Amino acid sequence: MTTDEEELEMPTALITGITGQDGSYLAESLLDKGYDVIGMVRRSSTVNYERIAHIQGAIQFVNGDLLDQMSLIDAVKQHSPDEVYNLAAQSFVQTSFGQPVLTGETTALSVTRILDAIRNVDPSTRFYQASSSEMFGKVAEVPQNENTPFYPRSPYGVAKVYGHWITVNYRESYNLHASSGILFNHESPRRGLEFVTRKISYGAASIKLGLEDKLALGNLDAKRDWGFAGDYVEAMWMMLQEDSPDDYVICTGMTHSVREFCDVAFGHLGLSYEEHVVVDEKFFRPAEVDLLVGDYSKAAKKLQWKPRTTFEELVTMMVDADMALLDGRLKGLA
Ligand code: NAP
Ligand code: GDD
């Protein structure tokens, strides 16, 4: 086979949300697998490629916005992807209470915009929707699996329920290969600073280095099933390699409180979280999801997927990365 023929056979993946946490890990993974990776980016006044700076040269970028139907159609037309991963969203639950309509437009209706683009341009394109454990909200059972009823507790959760069901609906109505990954919280050193895990790892590192003394948090008793984003993007890809599309819960099966996260993070640096963490009402939510813990047995059986990173490994990885980041900045200033 000649080099030209080999190149022709490389699959192409279009990723929305490539500048986000998951987009960066998925792009890395697909490039390693030999994919041509197309990253959809929206216009901004400054470049925000921080998370993908190390692989930027290997990615082709296409301009597009979830709120703009034509740009989605053009992106699909222009690049004829074999697979589309819809990771873009307004993804911060707290913001969804303040901006519920924008969250609905972006996180809910845009899923239909992308599905319609695929349906009209090339219905053989495989599609992944980033669904969320936030859809389980006020949980109907413990642990949560693919059959657990949804009871969302935030405008974000409500929007994700719409995105989930429209994916199922287009699969059933138009025979699209459209799968939905119901992913529980997954974190990494690339997590946005406003999410609680990164806020804690960054806060603990700042305190250790003498840059801060206190860290203000909200509900310390909330419990989440936290995994590592690098493990979870593999499951997204596995779903699209299956002959038939389906829905899968992706999680670790273990749950920990925000308080426990603080304990491990501060403890890793020889600090006591009780001396530094203060509770501030402004970080409480109008409605809370108290407990999430998933059951990934379907993904284990059908996809042979399982999480590889433990809670302690995840927390210490994030704290070490923030120590290195802040230490590097301090040295740069010296
Ligand atoms: P993230 O870091 O917040 O990234 C969100 C991405 O969406 C960014 O690239 C952002 O672009 C893009 N985006 C936002 N609005 C857009 C618009 N109007 N047009 C085009 N792009 C837009 O989120 P993440 O943690 O990687 O999560 C990826 C997906 O999984 C999201 O759909 C999230 O809701 C879902 N999810 C996440 C988790 C989790 O624990 N991380 C769990 C379940 C489901 P900019 O960089 O330009 O802002
Ligand atoms: N962000 C934040 N900041 N959360 C806090 C704080 C704080 O200071 N203090 C306590 N928490 C609690 C929140 O009340 C919530 O119960 C929990 O920590 C986790 O909050 P986040 O890290 O903001 O994540 P999330 O669970 O609301 O949402 C994330 O996971 C979803 C999957 O279940 C996001 O990544 C969503 O996009 C994702 O779908």
Strand order of the largest sheet: 3-2-1-4-5-6-11
CATH homologous superfamily name of the largest domain?
A: NAD(P)-binding Rossmann-like Domain
Mean pLDDT: 97
Fraction of residues in H or I helices: 40-55%
Give the CATH architecture of the largest domain. 3-Layer(aba) Sandwich
User: What does the largest sheet look like?
Assistant: 7 strands, parallel
Q: Which cofactors or ions or other ligands sit in this model? A: NADP nicotinamide-adenine-dinucleotide phosphate, guanosine-5'-diphosphate-alpha-D-mannose
What is the fold-level CATH name, i.e. the topology of the largest domain?
Rossmann fold
Strand percentage lies at 15-25%
- Overall spatial form: globular
What does this structure look like?
The strands form four sheets. A seven-stranded parallel β-sheet has the order 3-2-1-4-5-6-11, sandwiched between helices. A two-stranded parallel sheet has the order 7-10. It has a two-stranded parallel ribbon with strand order 8-13. The termini are far apart. The protein has eleven helices and 13 strands. It has two domains: 9-187 and 228-250, 3-Layer(aba) Sandwich (Rossmann fold), CATH 3.40.50; 196-223 and 255-292 and 309-333, Alpha-Beta Complex (UDP-galactose 4-epimerase, domain 1). With 334 residues, it is of the alpha/beta class. The protein has helices spanning 3-8, 21-32, 69-79, 93-98, 100-121, 155-174, 196-208, 229-241, 258-268, 297-303, 311-333, and strands spanning 12-16, 36-41, 59-63, 83-86, 126-132, 178-183, 186-187, 215-217, 223-224, 227-228, 247-250, 256-257, 277-279. It binds NADP nicotinamide-adenine-dinucleotide phosphate (NAP) and guanosine-5'-diphosphate-alpha-D-mannose. Guanosine-5'-diphosphate-alpha-D-mannose is lined by residues 91, 93-94, 132-134, 184-185, 194-197, 199, 217-219, 222, 224, 258, 283, 285, 288-289, 292.
